[in-house]
Specification:
Number of helices: 6
Radius of gyration: 16 Å
Oligomer: single chain
Helix content: over 70%
Order of helices and strands: HHHHHH
Structural class: mainly alpha
Distance between the termini: 24 Å
Number of domains: 1
Length: 156
C-alpha cells in the first residue's frame, strides 16, 4: 500500500471514528438523561442485527452494538470520500456538503436501514429527539466526515 493510500485510509477511518464518537456520545448523554443506560443504548444498536435478543446478552451485545455503530459510520465516511472524488462540489463546499450529508445519513438510517433490520420497535419521531438527532448527524457526523476526508482529496 502506497503511503498516499495509507494516509487516505487513515483519514477516512479517522473521519468515521470522529463522526461515530460524536453520535454515540450524544445518544448516551441524551438517553442517559432520560434514565437509559449506556449498555441498553448500545444493545439497541445491536438489535438491528439480533432483534429483542440483544437485550439478553449483557455487555457482549452492547460491545457488538458499539462495533456495528463504528463500522457503519466508517463505511459512511468511505462512501462520502469515494463520491467526493468524483463530485468536486462536495470537496469545494465542505460545510454545506457535510451538513447535507449528515441529513442524508440520518434519513438513510431511519427510513431504510432500521425498517429493513431486526430493530424490534416501531419507529417514532418525537420532535426533540428528531431535532437533536438530526443536528448531531449534520454537525457531528456529516460535517466531521466532510472536513476530515477533504484533507485526503486531491486539489480541485
Amino acid at each position: 500500500m502506497s503511503s498516499n493510500t495509507a494516509r487516505t485510509a487513515r483519514l477516512v477511518v479517522l473521519a468515521g471514528v470522529v463522526g461515530a464518537t460524536c453520535d454515540i456520545t450524544y445518544a448516551i448523554l441524551y438517553y442517559g438523561w432520560k434514565g437509559i443506560s449506556a449498555e441498553r443504548i448500545l444493545q439497541t444498536v445491536a438489535s438491528g442485527l439480533l432483534g429483542k435478543a440483544s437485550y439478553d446478552g449483557g455487555w457482549p451485545t452492547a460491545a457488538l452494538g458499539l462495533a456495528c455503530h463504528y463500522a457503519i459510520v466508517i463505511v459512511a465516511a468511505a462512501v462520502f470520500y469515494a463520491v467526493a472524488r468524483r463530485w468536486a462540489w462536495l470537496r469545494n463546499e465542505p460545510v454545506t456538503a457535510g451538513l447535507a450529508f449528515g441529513v442524508a445519513v440520518y434519513a438513510f438510517m431511519n427510513f431504510v436501514v432500521l425498517p429493513l433490520s431486526a430493530y424490534p420497535f416501531p419507529l417514532r419521531f418525537p420532535l426533540l429527539t428528531t431535532a437533536t438527532g438530526l443536528l448531531v448527524h449534520m454537525v457531528g457526523v456529516g460535517l466531521s466526515i466532510s472536513l476530515i476526508t477533504r484533507r485526503a482529496q486531491p486539489a480541485s
